[in-house]
Amino acid sequence: MIVTKSGRRMFPTLQMTVTGLQLHSLYSFIVDLKCVDQKRYRYSFHQSKWIATGPGEPELPSRVFLHPDSPAPGRHWMKGPISFDKIKLTNNQMDTRGHIIVNSMHKYQPQISILKHNSVEKRETFSFPETTFIAVTAYQNHRITSLKIERNPFAKGFREGDVDDEMRGHLNLFKPFFSSISSHFQYS
Amino acid sequence: MIVTKSGRRMFPTLQMTVTGLQLHSLYSFIVDLKCVDQKRYRYSFHQSKWIATGPGEPELPSRVFLHPDSPAPGRHWMKGPISFDKIKLTNNQMDTRGHIIVNSMHKYQPQISILKHNSVEKRETFSFPETTFIAVTAYQNHRITSLKIERNPFAKGFREGDVDDEMRGHLNLFKPFFSSISSHFQYS
DNA sequence: GTGTTGTCACCTAGGTGATAAAAT
DNA sequence: ATTTTATCACCTAGGTGACAACAC
């Protein structure tokens, strides 16, 4: 995942559906990033894979992303997929804009917390392994670059089309969808 | 104010500051448009003014604009000016997008309501005379058109500049501000 | 004649990876 | 040698009034 000083969105977007909430109780949804191991990674071009290369940076002041709809009744959250597309990542430890701070070349696991606003607050935290990533300031793997260019609408300018837009639209019908990672959670 | 089928923002933007709210009580802010008289208007080019010309259209199904921050604690609303820039007006009576429906060539008075979410709900409605307007599908008065072009950033393409942007920036320092109508209310 | 609609060029605002320069 | 930064062209997304065509 690309990380910049001014903050970069995640792509694909973190997204989830949830069932089992109480229709009229208030909930908040919070995302944070857990550094999965205290290791620095480097990409081996020969082996085409990431390799852990020893002790990483110290843990960073942890920031969280509060979903802008929070707090909202269960009814609202269950209307459809909950999208975290406004999350921005930065490697600037002095960031003042509230973005989530990460160390480049480190591996992260997004965590989602559901906060239930009752007389007693209840917090439940969970994560989906399919959403782990390594933060970078420049892509290390050409196939990741291609995937992002193909799937992110904002990178359309880098697509080199032997097919025009209309034809591409038809072709896309046969490709797996990949503009968000959609996970599901059953609240209980 | 221009009105279209698909919905048009208001310009200048409705905006207000409020004091006197309880810091931790929840409030919602609601805007609606009151048809000030059941009259249709036409613009007299000779007299350079609007003239009432008899009975207007029947009252329309009233729609309201709920400020997207609602509900929020008093503390939030008093942090700074509350902007209603997302309001959109339409003349399409079949509108399905939740925009506020108005009749063209009729005069309207925006109303703001503060809803206090307590054990007992309290609603207080008020309006600022400086924000009345007549809805149109095309500008009738050339001086209004000029004002909008001068002040609305999105209309920059229609400014015919004998001065470049940097020079204009300096000149603007001497002009009265007119990109929003900012009113104040003391809650009690 | 009068008012409305759809389309357009021209903007604001901001999200992409490429690239060269800089930092480490 | 490796990683980071700043800038850029090229997009998405959507807000302007002008204007010609249209409806009544």
From TrEMBL, chains A, B:
PROSITE patterns: TBOX_2, TBOX_3. Residues 1-160 form the T-box domain. The keyword Transcription applies. GO terms for biological process: cell fate specification; positive regulation of DNA-templated transcription. One of its GO terms (cellular component) is nucleus. SUPFAM superfamilies: p53-like transcription factors (SSF49417). Pfam families: T-box. This is T-box domain-containing protein.
